Amino acid sequence: MAESAAQIREGIRAVLETFPHTPRAHVQSFGCQLNFCDGEKYKGILQDLGYELTDIPEEADVILFNACAVRAHAESRVIGRLGALKAIREKNPRLIVGLCGCMAEEEEVRALLRKSYPFVKLVLGAGAMERLPGSLLSVYRGEKRAETLAFAGLPDEALPTVRDSGFQASVPVMYGCNNFCTYCIVPYVRGRERSRKPEAIEQEVRQLIAQGYKEILLLGQNVNSYGRGLDEEINFPALLRRLDAIEGDYFIRFMSSHPKDATPELIDVMLESKHIEYHLHLPVQCGSDRVLQEMNRRYTVEKYLETVDYARAKDPDFGFSSDLIVGFPTETDADFEGTMQVIERVKYDNLYTFIYSPRSGTKAAEMPFVSTQEQIAARMSRLLARQREISEEFNKRFLGKQVRFLAEKRDPETGLLLGKTRHGLVLEAPGTQEDIGRLLDVTVTGVKNWALSGEILRG
After folding, report:
1. Which residues are CB-neighbours of 259 under 8 A, at least 6 positions away?
2. What's the whole-number mean pLDDT along residues 233-255?
3. pLDDT(151) > 80
4. d(Cα 54, Cα 36) in Å, to the nearest integer?
């Protein structure tokens, strides 16, 4: 008969009572914002079990790496850090090392762990967070390695969370992806789309606002798909309206949006809101219809630009940022020129650019390259240089205007606060340590290619 959650918890606490010191746990997350959000839940579970959290791996009795699988480079970095833990394990035989998240869903990764990293005793796939206590207890009882893969359902709403910030909070609204872009491994390691119930999301957001949080970041692989599979009829714009109606002084941000699902209704809700940012992160990936089709993105450049034009017609200051892949296997010089035309037309505030790297198990990994790495690097350099010019020029639209921004941190040497405005732009302004975590009104006095400068309006 399977043990209950309470029995498992008591079993672990009985083990921890035998430790000659306070047991400590270290959790490190890599990759996307959703992964960091999962990491906060791992911390909550471990703290609830009786571990004290530490930022120092050498002090820990449990070390969890919560790792992303989207990019091969990031995966290699995690494997390298796992290798560095071998020496710590030799000094502390009680230490349990675990790999969690998307990366743990890959069979080739698990095979590598079994072969070369036998000290990794715990493997938890994406969405298997609630299995952590049972897996830990199995290892304490002598199991050689506890492996659990599970991403079909939703995490337990009752899982505890330890927030990394006291004023910024991430709230997942859905998990998984149905899009199967040919370069992306996410649907294979995160599973199909599953949406949380709106009342659960609203309750979590209300609690955060009541606790004084000033920024709520709604997360999903494709937040625009929210609502699919739920019993009630609700879409993402309707969820935003529901959350925006909560009283308080706060921002709502969200990511990521898929262009094929970005509707005029979404733009209308954002512009009519009291709290939602006037900025949309809308990954275009490439400015060539042919390449977009080979990426299986399911929209055209014309369709993408219709969304941009609709928003800018209603608010010329509306901000856009985007993801761009340079050097997709079939990308030619002509395809890249299409990308350059898109950035000239849209005038992005910010771009997150990536040189394509093949991911094993995806369709694009089987496509031959038509360009050399030297050609691809030259394209990237050209794109980045032009984007810097565009950002600085387009940011001038805010000169002399009053904006609202959330102060996120302060440079002690310069005394400058750094944060983001409601239009999603980075802004720096002189301020005090007490300003951190506050929403402030600022007059924009200067423009750089990466940020605005301003002066805080003190009442």
Report:
1. 282, 283, 284, 297, 299, 303, 304, 307
2. 97
3. no
4. 16
Q: For residue 273, how many other CB atoms are within 10 A of its CB?
A: 17
Angle at 335 between CA 332 and CA 337, to 5 degrees: 110
Q: Which residues contact 70 (CB under 8 A, 6 or more apart)?
A: 31, 32, 102, 184, 185, 186, 359
Tell me which residue of 459, 453, 452, 414 sits closest to 438, measured CA to CA: 459
pLDDT in tens, 321-331: 999 999 999 99
- How is 313-348 classified by DSSP, letter by letter? HH-TT-EEEEEEEE--TT--HHHHHHHHHHHHHH--
Residue 39 tokens read as 């990491």
Confidence check: pLDDT of 84 > 90 = no
List pLDDT tens digits, range 404-430.
999 999 999 999 999 999 999 999 999
Domains of the chain: 5-148 (3.40.50.12160), 165-277 (3.30.750.210), 282-395 (3.30.750.200), 399-456 (2.40.50.140)
CA distances to 139, 176, 184 from 146, rounded to whole Å, are 7, 24, 28
